[in-house]
Amino acid sequence: xxxxxxxxxxxxxxxxxxxxxxGQTNPEQQIEYEYVHSPHKASIYSAILPGLGQFYNKKxxxxxxxxxxxxxxxYFALENRxxxxxxxxxYIYKFNEETYEIDNDLIDRYxxxxxxxxxxxxxxxxxxxxxxxxxxxxxxxxxxxxxAHLFNYDVSDNLSxxxxxxxxxxxxxxxxxxxxxxxPGIRLKxxx
Length: 192
Description:
This protein has helices at 2-17, 39-48, 52-56, 63-95, 106-109, 112-149, 171-177; strands spanning 160-167, 184-191.
């Protein structure tokens, strides 16, 4: 009984008081880790809550754009849905030649064929609004993913493109065309 207790205490002492096991390291041996910005995490965040991926990427100015798009598209989707239901109710009422009282102003103004066209118009707009809303949601996720991929991208002053006019001084060109003058050209310089 004493032997297992002594073994346990010995292992406990090794684990607790060993400088390597306790996380204490020599300052010269410390390893510095570079922060890696995760595109996967940004995608998941944006999928869970639109705009959260932009927040993770520190692109705070994009969050109002995301929610404005969702609000405007959502408004049109709900408005078209409301008008679709109203036109559908009026169409069914007129088509079945119902006589009960109903509070729908479209019944007195239009006949059955026009009500069917109105219903189909609002149905199409409602469905398009939902499709555009889904595309906007997907664009939000794609934007967060691309921004996360480009988070550590170096955009310094050393990156440049210069286009300038030049005179081509190629000897072979002069010999082929028998011209004593250098022809004009364009030089493209790319500095990385």
